[in-house]
Amino acid sequence: MSEQAPEQTPPPVEPDAATAEHQALEQRVAALEAAGQSGSDTADTPASESSQSSSSGFSFELVPTGRTHTVNGVETPILDDAGEPESEWTLFATADGTKVPLLTKPASFVANHKIREQRLAERAKQSG
Amino acid sequence: MPPVITSIGAFKQNLTGGAFEALAAGTRDSLTIISFPDAQSAWVEEVFAGNSAHKMEVAVFSQRFGDNQFGLRMESMFNPTLSGADGVPQALLPRTLDIPVWSADTLNVQVNGTAADNADVVLQLYYTGIPGAGQRLASAPQVEQMVAMGISGNSRVLGIEVTVTPGATGNYGTAVALNTNDDRLQADYDYALIGYTCDQPALSFGISGPDTGFYRIPMPGHWDARHTADWFLQASRWRGTPHIPVINANNKATTFIDGFDPANPGATKLTLYFAQFPQRFTG
Question: What's the pTM?
């Protein structure tokens, strides 16, 4: 029977690049929400409901993509139809208090599906 | 009479669903095959299909294309695990089996899908000759030989980025000039367009300009870059005919790219792979 190794205290964890990136993402989301942009095009849906307070769960949030392209030799944010830096919907899972992005969909793509649902509701109303 | 590659984009927003229904041709496109002389031929080489929310069935037919009922009937898959475009595009035809079309025949493009969905279908056509039209097309051995010459032959390979947004309602979006974002082609040199990569899937992009006879050459925005990075090189190898568009750098501002997709994927970054010809390409 082997002797059990003495329990060691783990060294303090330095924030790595991924953590820093995640924090930056959260700050951008907070800034967007503060600016009233989050879910602005889907105000009738609870899409931006956050689960940050619970240790596990899901949330679907509008976050900036951060994509750029070269225009006249300068890296410039890609803009959406409204002339603002483009955003995308991101499905986050919060697992044991850590928030991880699972899936992203372009904002225009989600808006397209919202129109589809509205069409179906309209048809149901007409046929009902 | 040089050959021409072109495409027909067809789309419908808000499908009725539950039965086959007709799609309409996109802007600048027609479902009628271009008239060509008896000595020439033409084929449908590829069919790319996409649906915004579900799987669907596609039928391309005419009295002389298959039969006048369902003709070439195809299944289009839907894969919602992919980011952006849910498995669009599906390439529905065999790689090398091309289906002849008749001069001036009008094709029907229909889909059977789910109510309220949007559907887009693109046919890639190859004409061996159209009176008054022609494209500068190279073959795979010509381009491979040139790239292999490398520095000694003053040939270089570049990737030119262009950001293209397909139309919001299933039709073609605003066309963007080749040099809008990335203006690095060397003046007066010819470049072979080997293939491309895109940062999210989209049904199809089209490139057209003076060197394509202003015919739109389709480029499916497949999620797997292995399919797209050498798209035109492979198309030439599969068929043994010139399929690689040659663009002169002086036409960069009049060569345009546009996008076609059923689900409004938004701005898509597209990088076109160009191999520079050391001397003027003479065909």
Answer: 0.81
